[in-house]
Fold Trehalase.
Amino acid sequence: MQGRTWGLRLLLLLGLRLGSQEALPPPCGSQIYCHGELLRQVQMAKLYQDDKQFVDMPLSSAPDQVLRHFRELAQTHNLSIPRQELQMFVQEHFRAVGQELQPWTPEDWRDSPQFLQKILDPRLRAWAGQLHQLWKKLGKKVKPEVFSHPEQFSLIYSRHPFIVPGGRFVEFYYWDSYWVMEGLLLSEMPETVKGMLQNFLDLVQTYGHVPNGARVYYLQRSQPPLLTLMMDRYVAHTNDTTFLRDHIETLASELDFWTKNRSISVSSGGKSYILNHYEVPYGGPRPESYSKDAELAATLLEGNRDTLLAELKASAESGWDFSSRWLVGGPNPSSLSSIRTSKLVPVDLNAFLCQAEGLMSNFYSRLGNDSEAAKYRNLRAERMAALKDVLWDEDKGVWFDYDLENEKKNLEFYPSNFAPLWAGCFSDPDDVDKALKYLEDSRILTYQYGIPTSLQKTGQQWDFPNAWAPLQDLVIRGLAKSPSAKAQEVAFQLAQNWIRTNFDVYSKKSAMYEKYDISNGGQPGGGGEYEVQEGFGWTNGVALMLLDRYGDRLSSGAQTALLAPHCLAAALLLSLLPQ
């Protein structure tokens, strides 16, 4: 009887604490890693500096035993467990982070890949060789015990080894892995790429989509959909059509996930279009950032908390967690409590899907399935029309996110505004020159150490003064693919600036970082929810891509890099004059 009474009290207490939170389902079913009183008490006690540490710790025994012991402890202390007792409980029932993974040296890693010979600057060539070495440091393999006892881990089992971002990110992530794979292919490591691709395809077959990362607490949110592009890069490198044929339906089902769960109707000029947005209708704080989310939610009226927590997850799904991009149009655009990610139609998400639809059409043509090829060709054409009519701004000459509630574009600068150029999802060749003029008018070319993530200084990590490798790639390759000589020259200068920042910081700190502060000479980045991380998967990948593309021109020295802002236009003009 006493146990039933305690259980009833616990339910009443949770109801009072969470208010309407139970209206939305939790991020996953685990009462340890995704929701429940144990998770709440440990994370709100802040036993660890980073909430992610606790939810990454494996269990020492079965979850029902751990939960039973926790209930007994909570009952003893009338639900208010002293911090020291809670600490002892965690030490007794959980194991240290990372024990379910083992270091892995990729079997296809070889010294001196060919692309190194294209790099003429000897210092940059030596540095590129060190970046190539880093793949061995970032390789991981899941131990068999995760397969045999999955309930004791937040890590999702993967059959094949993989490359991780680095630092606190000891598991693999969805969109990070695309730029990692580009670097691996330059390093002549197609078998590693194939294994990573297979892991993603396995996730789609199991869950119907690619989760944000390989943890159960990430299960209900995805990340920018680049799986089709990963397959394209692998097949282009290996010509492995058999692998493509075996998995084409899985690629199709991943795109179906975005169609069924992330579509939104948008009206423009009297016509209605279907585009996509980020949306994660799941309740509770993000387990890996539990205390921050719970404290932020507590500042709002009870009825608004569910919405806030779902919007925070949608922002995590975008990959841009967090940014002024998702705060604009809210009641207080400088506060994270104004976040409204799902109310915006993002340029980059729709460009990625447009590109994927084009690639799927090409894949089906290659495999002899003309009807499916035509279906995806039509989907791409419909999305191209929507990008032009809803997101393109003729006055500014670039694409912008569309605000569904306020029925207008968000005219702020973000590198994602250039994603259709990168994805090849535009039909008017003049769009490149217009976008280049927009870049100049926004004074982005005056930033000597990289392209800023925004021009808003909010303290969030996806804002000024941080610069991120994948966003450099969106702009640089978007311009580099153009037939315009001027656009190509600007692309090179931007690449030179970014390589110089990466190289200079590496020269001082012997590390690559996930992001860089470009406001004061190029430093490791800051802001956001955690300390800047070393590693770093996608930064290495983008650096190798730029060193491969421009290796015969890039310089490690100051004289040709980092032209003073007023000199850049003159340099571009001179470069276009007949020699």
